[in-house]
From TrEMBL, chain A:
Name of protein: Carbohydrate ABC transporter permease
Domain ABC transmembrane type-1: 171-363
Location relative to the cell: Cell membrane
SUPFAM superfamilies for the chain: MetI-like
Transmembrane domains' residue ranges: 12-35, 171-194, 206-227, 239-258, 287-308, 344-363
Keywords, ordered alphabetically: Cell membrane, Membrane, Transmembrane, Transmembrane helix, Transport
Membrane-topology descriptor: Multi-pass membrane protein
UniProtKB/TrEMBL annotation, chain B:
Cell membrane is among the record's keywords: yes
Location(s), subcellular: Cell membrane
InterPro entries cross-referenced by the UniProt entry: MetI-like (IPR000515), MetI-like_sf (IPR035906), UgpAE/MalFG_permease (IPR050809)
Keyword Transmembrane: yes
Main location: membrane
Family in the record: Belongs to the binding-protein-dependent transport system permease family.
Cited Gene3D superfamilies: MetI-like
Keywords, sorted A to Z: Cell membrane, Membrane, Transmembrane, Transmembrane helix, Transport
Chain segments annotated as transmembrane: 6-24, 53-72, 78-98, 110-131, 143-163, 175-193, 199-221, 251-270, 300-322
Coiled-coil intervals, chain numbering: none
Membrane topology: Multi-pass membrane protein
The ABC transmembrane type-1 domain, residue ranges: 106-321
Protein name: Sugar ABC transporter permease
Length: 377, 329
């Protein structure tokens, strides 16, 4: 193929460019999320993440303290301070004292207020309200200013979601659901797969057909009957219920994948072991299980990603409380309650997708192998 | 921390119980029918006829309990009232066919069924064909494949951020609106746009599934015999002709598999709609509608009826799959 393309440099360039475009399209949304999760919340809400490296312009209103804060200095009454007090500093370019003209003056200028007062605001945020006579009034003057903020990156969002928004707790809950729900079905499926591949018994092909049929049964069918069943037998909303549910729903694919793989193992090995008097249990344990490692790993990754990312089963079979809310459910809740707080949403989302991404990139080989075994013949 | 210990110990308990079951039952079977002594031959035969069922036992129990019983039970529930105790005959079905929400969901589901598998397969095929020709193809593949690892809900957050809208004179922080405004257009609230909003939700699933299609189709493309391609090259076919007339026809089977796999996924799509719109603004789909009747409507009968509709839509694919599997033996 290289030969053909090689003779057409224009075409090969077109290929490079189209692939680059596809890759960009497919990664930019996630990249935007990642960048945003490290940005300062105030900056995130006023400028696009693609401007994260350039300074941000903000228009802010500051209310100076009321008249009681004034001090007498050299025959003048003065209120002074810094408009950035309590927040990150930027550089002030313009300021004003009324909402009609919030950018009337340049930083460093002195503005004439009413009653002979003057207001000056420096670029670093220091302001000074001066008056020749004692100032009165219970409300302080408002200062409008435009500030150019340097780009700020922070881990604050992550600290915030992990400890105050409950993502940390949900992370543990998700782990609690995922680990057993990944391992238990593998064991059960492996035995069943071996039986379907190498043992002779009546009804084998029927059973295999049933497994293939069950592969596509929509989960939605099972929710209500199982919810009722769980209530009746007293499992209720518990981790055990979720583990069993994930095991049950994962079994058809597990059995199908493993059976195909185990069926493909060399016949001679298994038959010669039988001739040597090994029982099926020994053959399974000592020969089939070690040889099937790649298939077991493939399914384990599938099941892990599926359980980690699941929302439906967790919502139906787990409670809505601190001890049981998994990350996907928490994320959904945050989408409702923190819809506009993108610094919280992006950081939370990234925490929840970090583990699957890690698994994905480190074990991609097995995942691809499993996909191919599952669908291509 | 305590909970993690609980998780690990219950995992150990679960795995232990499984091991104990398989090991124990096999031990007992060998005890009852020892493969030695005067009846050794007969015993081995007997043990061999029982052992498969020991291996299959837990799987059969779980499959029956979690998949087969619910199907039967759902069919029954669809003839019962909200709490599942009062028999109402076909009332749920007559309600369903007259219900506006159901029609909307069905229409949207059909829309999803047409667009998503087609688009994901198409992009997957393009990506597979192109990445196989360049040096950094594997990295590119990884990147396109990556959304597969992201949860639907995580993907929804990602895309909700892309679709975000701010007031007209304020800087847009959503990528799509920023581009639209940059090109001189008006910012739009994409997920509330009538009719088109469904497509903006579909984009999310297409984004996730393209990688899957690409991986499978790429393997199929590599499996095509060199001879047919060489013959075409000798005949003077250009790369486009080779792709469309030689390669694609040879992988129709795989394309069909990819298409049906995504179709099944689409029928069950739920998380995306729940997270993005919760079915508002005319984006409802069956799976979410079912969920809605289950948790907000608290009507098990109607909910089970909607689930059955999804099931009925899956059945043709199920039959086709079973036939294919039987052919291969």
């Amino acid at each position: 193929m290289d030969g053909i393309a090689g003779r057409r440099p224009l075409l090969i360039w077109a290929v490079h460019l189209s692939v680059a475009a596809l890759v960009l399209l497919w990664t930019i949304p996630t990249f935007g999320l990642l960048v945003s999760s490290f940005r300062d919340g105030d900056q995130l809400s006023v400028s696009g993440w693609w401007t994260a490296l350039t300074p941000t312009e903000r228009n802010i209103v500051y209310r100076a303290p009321a008249a009681e804060a004034q001090v007498e200095q050299a025959g003048q009454w003065v209120i002074s301070g810094n408009v950035f007090e309590g927040q990150a500093a930027g550089e002030i370019t313009k300021f004003g004292f009324s909402s009609k003209a919030p950018t009337a003056f340049d930083a460093g200028q002195s503005a004439e207020l009413t009653k002979g007062r003057t207001l000056s605001v420096m670029a670093n945020g220091d302001y000074r309200i001066a008056s020749s006579e004692e100032m009165k009034g219970k409300r302080g003057a408002r200062i409008f200013f435009t500030s150019i903020d340097p780009p700020r990156f922070t881990l604050e969002n992550y600290r915030n979601v992990m400890f105050s928004e409950g993502i940390g707790r949900s992370f543990i809950n998700t782990l609690t659901v995922t680990i057993p729900a990944t391992i238990i079905p593998i064991l059960i499926a492996a035995f069943a797969a071996y039986a379907l591949a190498w043992m002779k018994f009546p009804g084998r092909s029927l059973l295999l057909a049933v497994v293939v049929g069950l592969l596509v049964v929509p989960l939605q069918m099972s929710l209500i009957p199982l919810l009722r069943l769980y209530t009746d037998v007293g499992i209720g909303k518990s981790y055990v219920g979720v583990w069993l549910a994930h095991t049950g729903f994962g079994l058809p694919l597990a059995i199908y994948l493993l059976r195909n793989y185990i069926k493909g193992l060399p016949k001679e090995i298994i038959e010669s072991a039988k001739v040597d008097g090994a029982s099926d249990f020994d053959i399974f344990r000592k020969i089939v299980l070690p040889l099937s490692f790649p298939a077991l790993a493939s399914f384990a990754i599938f099941q892990f990603l599926w359980v980690w990312n699941d929302l439906l089963i967790a919502t139906v079979f787990l409670g809505n409380n601190e001890e049981q809310l998994v990350m996907t459910a928490r994320l959904r809740e945050l989408l409702g309650s923190r819809g506009g707080n993108w610094e919280i949403l992006t950081a939370s989302a990234f925490v929840s997708i970090a583990v699957p991404l890690l698994v994905f990139f480190s074990l991609q080989r097995y995942l691809v192998r499993g996909l191919l075994a599952g669908s291509v013949k | 921390m305590e909970q993690l210990i609980f998780a690990f110990s219950s995992m150990a308990a679960g795995v232990g119980a499984c091991v104990l079951y398989f090991w124990g039952t096999n031990k007992i079977l060998d005890g009852i029918y020892p493969a030695s002594g005067s009846k050794a031959g007969q015993n081995i035969l007997r043990a061999n006829s029982i052992r498969p069922w020991l291996f299959l036992g837990p799987a059969i129990v779980l499959l029956t309990l979690y998949l087969i019983y619910p199907v039967v039970n759902s069919v029954m529930l669809s003839f019962y009232g909200p709490s599942g105790e009062v028999f109402v005959g076909t009332a749920n079905y007559s309600w369903l066919f007259a219900d506006q929400g159901f029609r909307e969901s069905l229409f949207n589901n059909l829309l999803w069924l047409i667009v998503v598998p087609a688009a994901a397969t198409f992009f997957g095929l393009i990506a597979a064909a192109l990445t196989d020709r360049i040096g950094w193809g594997n990295i590119a593949k990884s990147m396109i494949f990556m959304p597969m690892a992201i949860s639907f809900i995580g993907a929804s957050v990602i895309w909700k951020f892309v679709y975000d809208i701010r007031g007209e004179n304020i800087e847009q922080i959503g990528l799509l609106n920023a581009i639209v405004v940059g090109l001189g257009g008006e910012p739009q609230a994409w997920i509330t746009l009538p009719f088109w909003n469904s497509f903006f939700l579909m984009v999310i699933l297409i984004w996730i599934q393209t990688g899957f299609a690409m991986v499978i189709l790429s393997a199929a493309l590599r499996g095509i015999s060199e001879e047919t391609i060489e013959a075409a090259v000798l005949d003077g076919a250009n790369p486009f002709q080779i792709f469309l007339k030689i390669k694609v026809p040879q992988i129709w089977g795989t394309i069909a598999v990819v298409w049906t796999t995504i179709t099944i996924l689409v029928l069950k799509v739920f998380d995306i709609v729940l997270a993005m719109t919760n079915g508002q603004w005319g984006t409802q789909v069956l799976a979410n509608y079912m969920f809605d009747w289950m948790f907000r409507g608290l009507d098990f009968g109607r909910s089970a009826t909607i689930a059955l509709v999804i099931m009925v839509m899956v059945i043709p694919i199920m039959i086709w799959n079973i036939r294919e599997a039987r052919k291969e033996g």
